[in-house]
Amino acid sequence: MLVLSRKKGESIIIDDQIKLTVIAVEGETIKIGIDAPKQISIHREEIYLEIQEENKSASTSHFNVEELKSIKKP
Amino acid sequence: MKIGTERFGEIEIKETEIISFPKGIPGLDEYKKFVLFPVDEQDSPYFLLQSIEKRDLCFFLLDTLAYFTDYEIELDESTVQSLEVESPSDIIVFSLITVTTSLQEATANLKGPIILNVKKNLAKQVVLDKSDYLIKQPLFQPKSEAQQKESRG
Predict the structure, then answer these.
(1) Taking CA atoms, what residue in A is nearest to B144?
(2) B46-51/B58-63 β-pairing
(3) Alpha-carbon distances, residue A53 vs B25, B54, B66, B72 (angstroms)
(4) CB-based contact (8 Å) between B125 and chain A?
(5) B96 — contact with chain A (CB < 8 Å)?
(6) d(Cα B126, Cα B103) in Å, to the nearest integer?
(7) What pLDDT, in 10s, does the model give residues A22-62?
(8) What is the ipTM of this complex?
């Protein structure tokens, strides 16, 4: 992993097309601005990991299609 | 072509029915080709997404907008481009359903919907970072309306 230190207002450029800027530093929280081409998707990591885990749970779910017919939506 | 499945045994499918997930499904992203079946013919919002590459990989899906009628979703440019979307009517939105304990306690992932372009048979899962939709939205318990609060941006 490449580690760089930046102060508020400073930026990092990735692959000539993605720019990360430190917008604000408030205690332990950093606000980061991201300029990137529209086709690149950007997410908070923890949400992405949660989605991955939920997908794995969904893939091993056991469901009985017959049972569905007897369940009523509240 | 014939494919082997755990749930349905050997089934015959047409090439034109195959749905491609160019990036796979996060967590299981080596599997990219699936077929979609409705659970039954009578206007049910439930579907099955069967992998044609792994016989025991079959997801249970909900047609999200048919079930949660005030669910709102906006597609970003990255998704519109990668799924080659030309019009909103090209799209169906699904949610993956997770059943752990019992069907009564089943949940739908409203935070990570599956977007399918039915014209191109291209699909991907998107993550609605800015929404307050749940990853585990109960389907059958009380208070099962999708929740949307003011986003904190």
Answers:
(1) A74
(2) antiparallel
(3) 11, 19, 25, 24
(4) yes
(5) yes
(6) 25
(7) 999 999 999 999 999 887 878 889 999 999 999 999 999 88
(8) 0.88
In this structure, are residues B28 and A55 in contact, taking their beta carbons and an 8 Å threshold?
yes
Q: Is A7 on the interface with B (CB under 8 A)?
A: no
Give pLDDT tens digits for B36-61: 999 887 778 999 999 999 999 999 99
Q: What DSSP letter does each residue of A20-60 carry, written as one string?
A: EEEEEEETTEEEEEEE--TTS----HHHHHHHHHHHHHHHT
Nearest to B78 among A39, A63, A69 (CB): A39
List the single residue in A with minimal CA-CA distance to B111: A51
3-state secondary structure of B80: helix
Q: What is the pTM of this model?
A: 0.84
Sign, CA torsion B79/B81/B84/B89:
positive
| A39, A54, A62: residue with CB nearest B99 | A62
